[in-house]
Fold each of these.
Amino acid sequence: MLKEERQQTILSEVELHNRILLTDIAETLDVSIDTIRRDVKELDLNKKLRKVHGGAISLGFTTNSARNQNIYAVDQKRVIAQKAAAMLKDGAVVFIDGGTTCLELAQLIPENLDLTCFTISLAVAMELSNKPNVTVIMIGGQIAKESQIAIGANTIHNLAEIRVDFSFIGTGYVDAMFGLTEFDWDIVQIKKAVIKASKKTVLLSISEKLNSQHRYKTCDINTINTMITELDPNNDLLSAFKNNDIKIL
Amino acid sequence: MLKEERQQTILSEVELHNRILLTDIAETLDVSIDTIRRDVKELDLNKKLRKVHGGAISLGFTTNSARNQNIYAVDQKRVIAQKAAAMLKDGAVVFIDGGTTCLELAQLIPENLDLTCFTISLAVAMELSNKPNVTVIMIGGQIAKESQIAIGANTIHNLAEIRVDFSFIGTGYVDAMFGLTEFDWDIVQIKKAVIKASKKTVLLSISEKLNSQHRYKTCDINTINTMITELDPNNDLLSAFKNNDIKIL
DNA sequence: ATGTAAAATGCAAAAAACAGCAAGATAAAT
DNA sequence: ATTTATCTTGCTGTTTTTTGCATTTTACAT
């Protein structure tokens, strides 16, 4: 029996049953277990299947069930979150927005830091409630399904009654000329209320969003006090923002 | 059975039911509890699920919730939740409390049901936001770390401004004589506000809590309109409650 | 505080993987 | 035809992985 032929048989067996045992195949094809081992190793190398201890598994079988809830550009967002976390001091009163970058920030808050955090995001609130020294206040309101943040009149009303040292916000789009913009009108209202409630506003945005714009405007770029991207502050991409009165980290 | 195969099975079980018990899985797959323990440990390490005492929970369910670690008496709680879910009609405006039983209820709400749900629980809010036809309103306030629910004056203030058809509440302790009691003063204040805001109050409680009491009183037993346990309504344990004007399910 | 369930730990047997070697087959070059 | 190099295959002994069991430690609920 040819090697090629044998490997083809192995493959179709894997496709058929989603998984195989090396011992089974060795017996069926009447060759030594080592040969099968080597075949499977090769097929694995060629990404035709996945070799596991004692057998092999079809690629399709493995990928579908594992629901990858991977966040886009996690690494960049983590860098941003680290820079932002460095701004936090004991006793500060801050607001943390929804969005994956802000969630990273919430995760990166040191255990020993004494903070009061307001948020409109269910996920951020949950994350923060794991930090023993952080007082978490969830701003209520109707929950937007996709983003799991509180929106609407009631939320804005509640936001009007607070005053924080820093707010860390994200944005859909940001441009040196057009400022911060969003796809969604409701979100803009929320962000406006947040900015109004903050002494200083810190924008967290991955560089990919720079020089992009959309329909509804949140604020001018110089409303932002500090802007954090994953880039080095001296990066050329950020030069357009330097004319303004913005601190870039 | 291959190890990988087994782990895939564990994962899909977790995704399906949001939570599993190690002993159940061990029996189903016919391997020792140690093996399952090691598998789950490994999957946890690989961030595929979250290992908790006695079982595992899905990551997608809720990232980090102290409440969800408690998978105590899930089956009973699911029975209760099913009975409660049967009470829900299209167009209803309801309040759903925190606590595992209420969380079960939130999960069991049918996809096609049109509802407006108020809640003080982050986990319930998250769960409900997966239901396309449910309008979710999170009542804001300071978040209690252990239970991840909003508490405090602001929450009570917000509760004072709503009026719901039904509220589904849990309780720490319940007794036919002493009524509903709690270990925690703040929680009592919240529950009082909830009851005040409801036309009808539905108590969800596992039978284990019957005939138990604690320091602070929420309300008398006849303040409750409907009481749901996992038991058959004719069970002897419930006879003490039948004298009152309570519907028992 | 207490009893029970779960987790961690160490251990041993079995299975599988691995590395290295030698026999046989194949193909190309001399 | 012989040699040489390469590839394939099976075998051997060793190492690693996996698994279940017994025991201790820890965590949990009451």
Note: Confidence is low (pLDDT under 50) at residues 63-70 of chain A.
Amino acid sequence: MIIIKIMGASKTEHFTDQQNAIAILAKALGHPARVAIMDYLLEADACICGDIVNELPLAQPTVSQHLKELKNAGLIKGNIEGNAICYCIDEKALDQMQNYFAHISTRLSQKKNNCC
Amino acid sequence: MIIIKIMGASKTEHFTDQQNAIAILAKALGHPARVAIMDYLLEADACICGDIVNELPLAQPTVSQHLKELKNAGLIKGNIEGNAICYCIDEKALDQMQNYFAHISTRLSQKKNNCC
DNA sequence: TTATCATATTGCAATATTACGATAAATAAT
DNA sequence: ATTATTTATCGTAATATTGCAATATGATAA
């Protein structure tokens, strides 16, 4: 038997689909620029990529990369709007996160054996 | 004026405290092993570090490191319990996340100009 | 067609994360 | 005191992330 150690990569195959799904969503929100993009999409009247670039203190390629990560995680979706691209929050992913934290909250209030 | 480019580091100073706070918590949950730790602490009757090590498919130093990250983010807290250490979920951080997602959900249902 | 505008991709440098063996530190048991 | 048990830290290797200049792509305008 040969064991090859691959370091720096998470062993996703050892965890449940649910755990991996939450981790992917959480990771996508694990950068302030991406939280700021969500905030913008939530509050602004538009969702044009160029507006987001102007709003953030980051260069256009960097913002494009962050948008791509949010999109890959399923947190936002993009629509071609003429020349521009309109990004919007994908409610399904957010519902998933909301349900996850609601479940934790409920479960915590049931538990009485917390030792800390 | 001298501008020093520091790459690979996020420019946290350009974002709001709230955005940074959410990002820190989300980042800590952005790995399936750490989600699995939270799941364990939520469902198990104990919260001993050794039990967590046995539960996870990772070596003890790796689990210790993940626990440290969860603790640094404020998601868990640890108590010395004789020879062992008992880790528990910190409700404050989870409330923060729950509020964040609840706020997004509420705001989304108010919005009608979603273009996607 | 050519120029312009908006966004994506490439390439690369710097830093961060992940993982684990070896070892340390701290307490408990003998 | 010595040994075992439990958890943390160190050192290090591999991979991932972050950021941006340069460039490519694609759609609209002239």
Note: DSSP finds five helices and two strands in chain A.
